[in-house]
Write a structure and sequence with these properties.
The chain is α+β, with helices and mostly antiparallel strands. The protein is built from eleven helices and four strands. Strand 2 and strand 3 form a beta hairpin. About 25% of the residues have low confidence.
């Protein structure tokens, strides 16, 4: 697999070392983690990109801190752990902001415990709800995310080994088991009783962790203790 990061390289070596140290076969280690043997082999051989949810699963299976799976460098460990921390809560607390986090902030824009100063909003254009991203209130959007773009992201990040077999197959039907990813932006907003008129903007701020997640600082500290 080309363009592997140093974290991915470290991860592949680490999970193989953990398995060998415990004298486990690929099959037994896969059963312990909860993934197929072939999939585990591909992670060990750098044929698949590891996800944060996989790291979380492995850390629980071997009862080790998640940071020990990604690097021996403190800064790298903290970045990965914070990303996992935020995802866990975004899935529960605020799904619209999770979309923003996964598609934008996760692309190396969230570093050293700080969000970059960006803003994004849901808007409706020509009847379709999309997400637009801006650097500040007076700038033009530098990124637009449509539902299909989001599903493509999910297809490559959540399950990179699964391919669309037929042209008629939609991303929604193929990856529908990743609930609640099988809806539309309209469906997601509806759950939060939000309606977007043509060219209206519903902003999602991404400037502070507590603000974005609606957590208290104490909540955040407790979660950090669990992960770090």
């Amino acid at each position: 697999m080309e363009n592997c990061s140093k974290i991915e390289i470290f991860f592949s070596k680490k999970i193989k070392q953990l398995r060998v140290d415990k004298n486990l076969s690929l099959e037994k280690a896969g059963n312990l983690i909860g993934i197929p043997m072939v999939e585990l082999y591909k992670y060990e051989e750098l044929k698949l990109h590891p996800t944060l949810s996989l790291m979380d699963r492995i850390s629980k299976a071997y009862n080790i801190p998640i940071k020990s799976l990604c690097s021996e460098e403190k800064e790298d460990c903290e970045i990965v752990a914070y990303k996992l921390l935020i995802r866990l809560f975004l899935e529960i607390k605020n799904y619209p902001i999770m979309i923003l986090f996964e598609t934008i902030v996760d692309k190396q824009e969230y570093l050293n415990d700080k969000w970059v100063d960006i803003e994004a909003y849901f808007t409706r254009k020509e009847g379709e709800i999309i997400i637009e991203v801006i650097k500040n209130m007076h700038s033009l959007p530098y990124q637009r995310i449509r539902w299909q773009d989001y599903m493509k992201y999910k297809a490559t990040v959540l399950n990179p080994q699964k391919k669309i077999k037929k042209e008629k197959e939609s991303y929604e039907s193929t990856f529908g088991n990743y609930e609640p990813y099988s809806g539309k932006f309209e469906d997601i907003l509806e759950k939060y009783e939000l309606k977007v008129k043509e060219r209206e903007k519903i902003f999602l701020k991404c400037v502070g962790i507590e603000e974005a997640l609606m957590l208290t600082k104490r909540d955040l500290e407790l979660l950090k203790e669990r992960l770090l």
